[in-house]
Amino acid sequence: MKLRILGIIIVAVFCGQVSADMVWVGSHRIKSVMVYNENNRNVITVRFKEDAVFDTGCAPTDQHGIVSFLYKSDLNNTHQGLLSVLLSAQAQSLPVNVLLDADDCNTSSVWGRFGNPAGLGLNLLGVEVVSN
Hints:
The protein has 132 residues and is α+β, with helices and mostly antiparallel strands. Helices cover 29% and strands 38% of the residues. Strands 1-5-6-4-3-2 form a six-stranded mixed sheet. Strand 2 and strand 3 (41-48) form a beta hairpin. Mean pLDDT is 83; it is low at 1-17.
């Protein structure tokens, strides 16, 4: 019986991670890409140009035009690939669509770089460069 309950808990946790509300938004041009360490977390934050309009329900994303990828580990191949695509799109002034976790809005007051509302915005999961 205990194993059955443990199995149900593991499945529930796994299904909760899989069912993130992932949405593609775009097509926006990148103003800046920041890679930094703050509060013992590594962060990639993308800020979009002022004409980018977001209506996600996440105040930092909607008001500051930012999305972020927050992680504890060192930069790995996934992070480097994401960064490479973002920087390439920025350098060529190409618009991008970004895949976001609409259920993961960071509004922590420890992240106040862009003023109020504080936070890192929605969690960045992927990027697609849109060709002209």
